[in-house]
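Mods, move this if it's the wrong board.
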Amino acid sequence: MLSFEIIKDPGEWEKMKDQWNNLLEKSITHVPFLRYEFLEQWWVTCGGGEWSKSDMHIIIARDDKKLVGIAPFFYKLNDMGDPSLMLIGSYEISDYLDFIVLPEYLDQFLLDLFSYLTTSEIKKWQDIDLYNLLDYSPTLAAVEKASGLVGWKCETEILQKAPYITLPGDWELYLKSVDKKQRHEIRRKMRRLSESGHQYRWYIVEKAEDAETEMKAFLELMDNDEEKKAFLTPTMRVQMLETMHCAFDTGCLNLSFLEIDGKKAAGYFSFFYLNRLWVYNSGMNRDFTEFSPGWVLLGYLLQWANNQKIDEFDFLRGDENYKYKFGAIDRSVVRMRINRK
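Not the wrong board. Structure tokens:
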């Protein structure tokens, strides 16, 4: 059997930062939301205020001295009021989550983990509630198998669509892959701004001395949408700002803006990670609605991504119509609930 230890103190967790990220690079699922930096900031604000203070229950698995798996749990009552073990990051602001485990150890890790979870070191729980697993993750089949072997009930439900575009590495080839009507619409909206006579530019924030001002400007753009403004509670603003800082410091922030006549008309906060662009959030200035600034900036980002030979443009969770107009296809995120009764 694998040996296990539990981390309940953030200070002990911090000591694992390098080991954590090194294991993630070889794990069954490698996404920016599972990096230590992202999850640590999530823990500081309890998901931007989504949760009240919780009990950390990060479980580390080793084969002899080799780190082979991590179950990044916290202990909480779930949305049904059941005492549960949930993945740190659950569930609103972390689009994709999973166990962090070497592929060749997945089956053994889960079976041994389930045995360990019944020991006295773990607070009494009823459910393991796993949110935002990608529908192609090997965790789905492995959890179902391990649950059956120990006699636990396992249920899976689709939570949301997560559209994405596989990029050909050429702007014109990409446009040819889009529906003819939508291809014309993309070109038309980009051309309308260029022929409007207004001064405009789009850019990606690169200079460290500009980062703080630009990040705050992005949050101001988000405030133009009433739903997003309500989402940006004071604690969530701290979470979003610190997440952008962490991404910038680790070299994976893609913060882009479209300016018209010297004013910010649209912005996208994305992660540039593993040669993919993960489009995390957006903000628009309603004063420039006639120029469809969100569409135009998205067009420039897709053009840039193709020119940079980026493999994939991931829109993350949400089935908003505009994503499909740019040629996105679906995958899903799912929730797995394991009940020990």
